Amino acid sequence: MKFNSHKARGHWPVSLFSIAVGLLAFLAVVGPRALYPSNIAWLSAGDPAFHYLGWLFFRNSDWQFPIGLNPSYGLEISNAIIFSDSNPLFAIFFKMFSGFLPETFQYFGFWLLVCFILQTFFAYKLIGLISKNALLCAFGACCYVFSPPMLWRLNGHFSLVGHFLIVASLYLTFKPSLQYRITVWALLLSVSGFTHAYLLAMVGVVWIADLLDRYRQRGIPLNMAILEVAVVIGFVLLASWQAGYFSVGGDIVSGGFGYYRMHPLSILDASGWSYFVPDIPEAPGTYEGFNYLGLGMVLLGACSLPAALASRFEIIRSILKRPALLALLLLLTLFALSHQVGMQSLWFSLPLPEPVQRFANIFRSSGRMFWPVYYVVYFAIIFLIVRGYSRRVAIALIGLGLAVQIVDTSAEWLEIRKRLMTIPGSHWQTKLVNPFWKEAAMRYNRIRWIPPEENSVNWQELANFAGVHKMPTDAVHMARVDMESLHLANEKAIETLMTGQYDRDSLYFFGDNAIEKVARHLNSDSDLFARIDGFVVVAPGWNKCASCSSVPEELDAK
Q: Which residues of the chain have pLDDT under 50?
């Protein structure tokens, strides 16, 4: 497999093409409303709400060091912006301009647009390694833009839409020569770290494979290989530190490896992303291993088989010349399949030692780790079409495959568009409508949920109330939480509950199961204990406050 070593086509034409195609694809799949900075209506439920609230608290907090720390979001169990999946890369940038931004501001729509544009750009550059034809490169790049696993992440995991980082890593790997290679790898891995841990891991694996193969084949000096490792790892550690990865200790809430896996036929399992390809019965959790190629790419794959046979499997021999890449892609595939291998009704489990299981749970959604392999499959299919057919036939085939890909996958992305194109709004509906809440927000500085949890009941309602009023809270949801910090916070909460000694600056919320314990130790002369809009609260000192409104008797929780 010989790639073009000619000087790359000018960046400006490719950039302009990528902006145009990326914008059109974004408008078709996502729609324009996500670009309204003050529109948060499309972020009001599920993971998007989690991501937005993490940003809201981060924006309203004073700068910390490392800069990714988010102390108001979680109080004693707080960690960093990376663990609310709020895209530290954009969160840190826009926080610098927070004073100039509107009161309600979101950058997630802009991030998605950037993803579409850069996916187009790097896919074009990647296909450009095997063809000089602009139309062929354009059609091939658009196939990457309409890859179902990337578009599927529009359902809520917005940082993970950044598949362009993986495509860029493959471009660096397959490009014959590149100036400042160490610097480019260090930058790409740092940006990946500032985006999402899974993307950092995948791009890191591709970098390791590239380094090993370059050292083996091209004989780069050992001292240069050591220098590259030192520089790249140094940059990655710095980026990870500042993004806040190390704000969570070793004992973290985690689990799920073997559940959130890929099944063996996932590349052919449409899972609702096709009008024609039937779904394959899946086991619970295998949705994280969604890696459907798309009907267009499946058809192109079938067309590439004669070319592969005619070339006597040149591509296989070429891949074997990159043993490190081949080995690590194989390992990624095995990790994606996990030790729970099989389909819904036919599967088997391989025993794993406890230390291995715990390590694997760091990337518990292992089905995602197939993405670098996925895009290599795309690349191999397009390579075989380009090399196995005349230019006109190759253009016609890839163009037809692209058309089928776009139309057929619209079975699902049109539904995604409907959800993302909800009526714009700068506020979320809330259950907290009693005048008490507005008054309480002026009296108290913190919102506390007892006992504190990483995913407490009604966390979104309470976190939104706290965020809007710029009040720190431990009523939060987090991707990871330090178990030691959570244990200490729970001990303090239990002590507060059992003694009735509440912080004067905090408004407390409880579940119904705590009502009896609260009432038993309450100082009712001083502290208000009531159910308001369905929420059980203790407002310390409220009953002694001459200017505070009285709560209607029927709301009293006792």
A: 6, 8, 554-555
